[in-house]
Amino acid sequence: MKYRKLGAGDLSVSEISLGSWLTYGVGVEHDRAAACVNRAFDLGINFIDTSNIYGRGAAESFLGGVLAGRKRESYVLATKVFFPMTDTDKGLSRAQIVKQMDASLKRLRVDHVDLYQCHRYDAETPLEETMQALSDVVRQGKARYIGFSEWSPKQIEAAFAIPGVEKFVSSQPQYSLLWRKPEEKVIPLCAANGVSQIVWSPLAQGVLSGKYLPGAKIPDDSRASSDSMGNFIKSWLQPPVLEAVQKLKPLAQEAGCTLSQFALAWVLREPNVASAIVGASRPEQLDENAAASGLTIDPALFRKAEAIVAGVERSA
Asked: Is the pTM higher than 0.85?
């Protein structure tokens, strides 16, 4: 496993990180989920990403239990705040950041997280209030660094311009061979300001593994077949997308790796990407994904892959 520096801070994170969206505490039974976390550590993955909204606290509670026996300095822990935890508890106001931070720490059974992220932008709260509250969380020792997810370039620039507050070190956008929007403005803006990308859905919810075949039945043991985990992948399961992905397989074979590894290595080719978040419902999936770290692949193969998927879009 290779490691990269996270933005302008001093955190060193594994190129492949373990996420918990839709899986832990929700879609994957406890023992198998715990086996995935333990395998991640065996493989050198030191970066665990979660959020208070995942399972309305269930993912954090699960991680709090499974991480309890490990030395706190042995892993980098990230969580998020924004989405509604109740009908009234939502957003990035000072009151919510204080309340949700303490609730997350309690569920995670730690006295601090390494990275506290704004899960989305809160247009109903003054940005200055949000940034001051996040800064207080850092200065109180409850979080080491702060980040954001899916903010627009204008919102990011506005945060950079506020004086006297803690600076963001990370951005968490969706980014993959099939979703390259961050390349337009977000990545250049962040790279110029000491902010790294931690990308989610680098395999497009598993579609870039190549296991979903055009016109074929969805595999019974896949995320797409799961009632609790399958809703978000459906927009990718379109014939043009699946047909294009199948055309990528020969390129991965030429590179001497699986298609999943090829797609993850493509994401990691971008220097501003510090880590690619993967989900896993079985430990062996992590074995495959972790092997993408440090892969050297001919850039010409990546260019061919980009040409194959150019213009292919998922449904709304």
From this structure: yes
